[in-house]
Specification:
Structural class: mainly alpha
Oligomer: single chain
Subcellular location: Membrane
Order of helices and strands: HHHHHHHHHHHH
Pfam family, one: EamA
Membrane topology: Multi-pass membrane protein
Keywords: Membrane, Transmembrane, Transmembrane helix
Main location: membrane
Largest sheet: none
Number of helices: 12
Strand content: under 5%
Distance between the termini: 38 Å
Helix content: over 70%
Radius of gyration: 19 Å
Shape: globular
Length: about 300
């Protein structure tokens, strides 16, 4: 029997804040050294590192039983979605800014909420959450209305933003795949292994097929890759999947809107990226919509307490 997921508590809230900052920094880290190491290769290498570490941990803990729990099929599906997400991220960062990618990638909670509504009875959307979905997509449309002139950092921002949105959809569907399969109760390390292994195989292969440049191992590139391997590929995702097993998936996104805010701020501060009015207004609508989707239950409980006073 599947245990009930809990609403957010203080520990989950604090943990999500740390994860948001970590995830916001990953786009910056990739973009900072993209001239030295192609984004596809960066993400593929960090995934390979994580897959090797996790594979060794799982083999030591479970031995050959690792392959006999019936999760391999679901793991392959989720792993392919995960790899597809980061194909879109890596390609998108060639065309758009890290701050734009952060906002469009973290539309994932909207796509996850829609998918969970269809697949998981305990995660049905309420009217207020539907309003949040509409608001978020209105924000996406607003963000696409005005595009600044191409620059060296963002030569085709529209294409890059579309790829960012597709990455968000792939991430959202990954969450649905985990929650609606045997992976819902699998150890976090196993779920993450499937995803990292698929990305480790697919992304470097795609980089080679596309004729990508050989890496140049400068000191900044090595520092960036070390951060991505340890903080992003291992720590952040292990903690994320651990949270998914214990808390409601839609509630976990209640603070995730800070990730694109952190991403935009860091992109402007560290990469000197532009921030146009249409994008700022659209991003605000997207974040408001995500907040409604994620925090609808808490808002309704707060309102009920107000009415009872």
């Amino acid at each position: 029997m599947t245990p009930a997921r809990r609403p957010l508590d203080g520990f989950a809230t604090g943990t999500m804040l740390v994860l948001c900052l970590c995830w916001a920094m990953q786009q910056i880290a990739i973009k900072l050294v993209a001239q030295d190491v192609a984004p596809l290769l960066q993400i593929g290498l960090r995934s390979a590192f994580a897959a090797v570490v996790l594979g060794l941990v799982l083999l030591r803990a479970e031995g050959l039983r690792f392959w006999r729990d019936g999760s391999a099929r679901a793991g392959l599906g989720v792993g392919l979605l995960f790899a597809l997400e980061f194909v879109f991220v890596a390609l998108g960062l060639h065309y758009t800014t890290a701050s734009h990618m952060a906002v469009f990638l973290y539309t994932a909670p909207i796509f996850a909420a829609l998918g969970l509504h269809a697949r998981v009875p305990g995660e049905r959307l309420k009217p207020l959450q539907w309003a949040g979905v509409v608001l978020a997509f209105a924000g996406i449309a607003t963000a696409f209305l005005g595009k600044p002139a191409p620059t060296a950092a963002a030569p085709n921002m529209l294409l890059g933003d579309v790829l960012g949105l597709l990455a968000g959809a792939a991430w959202g569907l990954t969450t649905v795949g985990i929650r609606a399969s045997r992976l819902s109760e699998a150890p976090a390390a196993k779920t993450l292994f499937y995803q990292m292994a698929c990305a480790a195989l697919a992304l470097p292969l795609l980089h080679g097929l596309m004729g990508g440049a050989s890496p140049v191992w400068t000191a900044p590139a090595l520092y960036s890759l070390a951060f991505q391997c340890v903080a992003v590929a291992l720590f952040s995702y292990l903690v994320w999947f651990w949270l998914l097993r214990r808390y409601l998936a839609t509630r976990l996104s209640v603070l995730s809107f800070l990730t694109p805010l952190f991403g935009v701020g860091l992109g402007v501060a560290l990469l000197d990226e532009p921030l146009d009015g249409h994008f700022a207004a659209g991003a605000a609508l997207v974040l408001a919509g995500i907040t409604l989707v994620s925090a609808a239950g808490m808002l309704q409980a707060w309102w009920a307490r107000r009415q009872a006073c």
